[in-house]
UniProtKB/TrEMBL annotation:
NAD(+) binds at residues 199-201, 233, 262-269, 285, 341-343, 393, 400. Keywords: Cytoplasm, Hydrolase, NAD, One-carbon metabolism. The gene is ahcY. One of its GO terms (molecular function) is adenosylhomocysteinase activity. It is found in: Cytoplasm. It comes from Microlunatus elymi. CDD domains: SAHH. This is Adenosylhomocysteinase. SUPFAM superfamilies: Formate/glycerate dehydrogenase catalytic domain-like, NAD(P)-binding Rossmann-fold domains. Substrate binds at residues 53, 136, 198, 228, 232.
Length: 479
């Protein structure tokens, strides 16, 4: 069995945490109970790319319990929990000397070239080909699309002088995999029956490809299930944002001015958690609807420029680029904390920061760096950057807790089953899961919280014009 993880001796610790997580993931355990015997994913060879955490371990082992074969990488260089990765490789019945689980290619603190090597590894099935992708942020999907494009063209282009550094890394990886034949991208592109995408940013990329006509296979946006984005993005971040800030800095949040850029699902959860700690929260937004929501929720809404000089904590939650510039960071107050919880590291201009004359970067501990402007002068002042601008809840803490991830990952499992078992229902395009399945995911999580649901009478159902057993809301309903 091939794999690349930090240390297999961590497997026992990982297994203990996976066992605890299973209890907190009733949706995934219900999937095992419902489909464990019929194994609808038999024959599915899933190339998976999601943060390699304890919760993802429960997802992986649910997919294999349903018959799938899986190869896995993390979708972020800092997000792997090494004990979870080890436990998945060793498997329930294996030992570190005799691993019998699933091939994982992930460890905390990968370099960018290592990250793209690991992503390429999930497509390397030897004689066989993968036929499904499970993605978070769209990097695995991107690699296949670029691989197909360049293999067909017969050449991988050189990155231009203005291209981001990461593009050069991707192109180098593709060149290597095409010339060595370890990844047959054109064949892989044709073999893939579909991708299920976890997050807002990945879905954004999928819709773009569908619009351009370049999407190679059907996709289900798991993110757009209500039981995903209105729970994971909001309540998950409400939990894990301050977990990350606390573990990184242990600064008292109460009384501080916390600036949250973006008031979408993630921003709403982040703002609520910071307010819960007693921070005075200020929102920046570009969308008048979200800005109005923030105002009506009681937050001050203004521009970043207005708050630069007195904000203590800045968090980007936008999925947009260049939200905080290097120049703006240079004008923040001494030891302001700056972090990002959106999917990619381009929300904060880290490249621009490194180029500022006289700046000095000092590692306080891994994923916590003090950047000092005008170092060595009497004007020296610094900011603290979390996770080098990458998502801080996974880099500085352990991401979302199991219960909320059970909602997201139950949607992932249902979406994999949909695309794999009903290909005729999904010609190449981007889809969302039917509302009945969304309601099913929510239902699976009620008992664990002691929720008693009221049932419609047939007369009430007829009055509302909905079936007694649901679905209850029209597609346009926004929750
Ligand atoms: P969303 O689209 O609901 O919210 C983003 C908000 O940012 C929107 O309201 C938008 O108007 C606003 N925005 C865009 N550009 C802006 C700018 N320049 N300044 C201020 N506001 C701006 O998206 P959602 O679901 O909240 O996701 C945001 C990001 O977080 C995405 O990249 C997503 O993939 C990621 N994400 C991260 C998670 C984590 O655990 N770290 C969990 C879920 C999502």
């Amino acid at each position: 069995m091939d794999y690349r993880v930090a240390d297999l001796s961590l497997a026992e610790f990982g297994r203990k945490e996976i066992t605890l997580a299973e209890q907190e993931m009733p949706g995934l355990m219900a999937m095992r109970a419902e489909y464990g015997a019929s194994k609808p994913l038999t024959g599915a060879r899933i190339a998976g790319s999601i943060h390699m955490t304890v919760q993802t371990a429960v997802l992986i082992e649910t997919l294999t319990a349903l018959g799938a074969e899986v190869r896995w990488a993390s979708c972020n260089i800092f997000s792997t929990q090494d004990h979870a990765a080890a436990a998945v490789v060793v498997g329930k019945d294996g030992t570190p000397d005799d691993p019998q689980g699933v091939p994982v290619f992930a460890w905390k603190g990968e370099t960018l070239p290592e990250y793209w090597e690991c992503t390429a590894e999930i497509f390397n099935w030897g004689e066989q080909l993968p036929n499904m992708i499970l993605d978070d942020g769209g990097d695995a999907t991107l690699l296949v699309h670029k691989g197909v494009e360049y293999e067909k063209a017969g050449a991988v282009p050189q990155p231009g002088p203005d291209d981001p550094e990461e593009l050069g890394v991707i192109l180098a990886q593709l060149k290597k995999s095409i010339s060595s034949g370890t990844s047959r991208w054109v064949e892989i592109g044709s073999a893939i029956m579909g991708v299920t995408e976890e997050t807002t940013t990945g879905v954004h990329r999928l819709y773009e490809m569908a619009r351009e006509g370049s999407l190679l296979f059907p996709a289900i946006s798991v993110n757009d299930a209500v039981t995903k984005s209105k729970f994971d993005n909001k309540y998950g971040c409400r939990h894990s944002l301050i977990d990350g800030i606390n573990r990184a800095t242990d600064v008292l949040i109460g009384g501080k001015v916390a600036v949250v850029c973006g008031y979408g699902d993630v921003g709403k959860g982040c703002a609520e958690s910071l307010r819960g700690q007693g921070a005075r929260v200020i929102i920046t937004e570009i969308d008048p609807i979200c800005a109005l929501q923030a105002a009506m929720d009681g937050y001050q809404v203004t521009t970043l420029e207005d708050v630069l000089s007195y904000g203590d904590i800045f968090v980007t939650t936008t999925g947009c680029r260049d939200v905080i510039s290097a120049d703006q960071m240079s004008r923040m107050k001494h030891q302001a904390i700056v972090g990002n919880i959106g999917h990619f590291d381009n929300e904060i201009d880290m490249a621009g920061l490194a180029k500022i004359a006289g700046i000095v970067k000092d590692e306080i501990k891994p994923q916590v760096h003090e950047w000092t402007f005008e170092a060595g002068t009497d004007r020296a002042h610094s900011i603290i950057i979390l996770s080098e601008g990458r998502l801080l809840n996974l880099g500085n803490a352990t991401g979302h807790p199991s219960f909320v991830m059970s909602n997201s990952f139950t949607n992932q499992v249902l979406a994999q089953i949909e695309l794999y078992t009903k290909p005729e229902d999904y010609p190449t395009d981007v889809y969302t899961l039917p509302k009945a399945l969304d309601e099913k995911v929510a239902r699976l999580h009620l008992d664990a919280l002691g929720v008693k649901l009221t049932e419609l009478t047939p007369t009430q159902a007829a009055y509302l014009g909905v079936p007694v057993e649901g679905p209850y809301k029209p597609e346009l309903y926004r929750y």
